[in-house]
Amino acid sequence: MFGKEIWDSLTQIEHLSDGTISEVYVGVSKRNNTAYVVKIQETRFKRPPHDAIRGRNILKDLQHPHIQTLLGSFFDPSTSCLHLITEYKPFVLSEISNKLRKNVKINIVSQLADALQFLEEHKILHRDIHPNNVLLDSEEGPAYLTDFSIAWSEKYPGDEKEELISQIGTGHYRAIETLFGCRTYRHEVDRWSFGILIAELFSNIPLFDDGSSEGWPSELQLISSIFQTLGTPNVEMWPELAACPDWNKFIFHEYPPKSWEDILPNTNSTVRKVVSKLVTYPNRASPAFVLENIHL
Fold first, then answer.
1. Keywords for this entry (predicted)?
2. Average pLDDT of 60-88?
3. Which of 14, 101, 258, 272 is the most buried (most CB within 10 A)?
4. Catalytic entry in 8, 61, 114, 128
């Protein structure tokens, strides 16, 4: 079935969630009794970095076992909305991470690393890696990376042909350079966010604090939390900072870095090694490094 055919066949339609430019529904097809998710995205008013058309174009070209497959799409001219249809996955990583066995967590990390390596090879940035964007078939996996609504690629740059938008990511998963207005980033932003996801998957506690737990999320709070954990960077040890337009607007206390044994005391050395190579200022490790080093 194509996108519109699937939509027309759905019954028992229920509202799942709302996004910045989208509404998400789930329904069961009366043709094959399969549950599908329909993401309805507004296209009349762009809210950068959200770009429904670009996200659809990127996703329709992707075929990977751990990236959620776009089964179909269609545009409704009466509402100016784009409908994206995927198969329903019953579990979200953020909701069940505390229940997962260690070997399942290792498998999930490996599967996501494989998906991210695939994206890097195809010059695609996801730009919103966090546990809400990882779906699972069961509490045993497998895992699927989802939600490409703010993704970017060299093939489909959208309005970001010259420079990229710095306002990307979610909460404390945002890469540090984007907090200082960096617009020349590439895959390192996904590597940073992936590292935070891995750290929290095994430690069950937030790696950084952006103030959300108190109800007042703040970029300055997040910057302070990162610096107090990893140490305050400078252009000598991280030359790319010089290209961040907001770096010189503030004077920061010079915090020393904590050891990863202190940052992640309840995780093993393998997890600490992997996270320390991803959540670092310069020279972040590739997803291939994660695949080679994450194990029981």
1. ATP-binding, Kinase, Nucleotide-binding, Transferase
2. 96
3. 272
4. 128
- The answer to whether 128 is a known catalytic residue is yes
- Give the separation between CA 126 and CA 144, rounded to whole angstroms: 13
- Pairing mode, strands 72-76 and 10-18: unpaired
Q: Which CATH number fits domain 91-292: 1.10.510.10, 3.30.980.10, 2.30.40.10, 1.10.10.10?
A: 1.10.510.10
- The pTM (predicted TM-score) of the whole model is 0.96
* CATH architecture for segment(s) 4-87: 2-Layer Sandwich (3.30)
Write the pLDDT tens digit of every residue in 237-270: 999 999 899 999 989 999 999 999 999 999 999 9
Q: Which residues lie below 8 Å from residue 274, measured CB to CB, with a gap of 6+?
A: 109, 195, 198, 285, 289, 290, 293, 294
**Contact criterion met (CB below 8 Å) for 187 and 194:** no
Query: Which pLDDT score, from 0 to 100, does residue 1 have?
Result: 56
Give the residue-averaged pLDDT of 78-102.
Answer: 96
Closest C-alpha among 127, 135, 129, 116 to residue 55: 127
Q: Where are the alpha helices (DSSP H) in 50-170?
A: 52-60, 93-96, 102-121
Say how far apart CA 105 and CA 134 lie, in whole Å.
Answer: 12
**Domain ranges in the chain?**
4-87, 91-292
**DSSP E strands, 77-234:** 81-87, 91-92, 124-125, 134-136, 143-145, 152-153
- N residues, the chain: 296
Count of CB atoms situated within 10 Å of the CB of 91 = 18
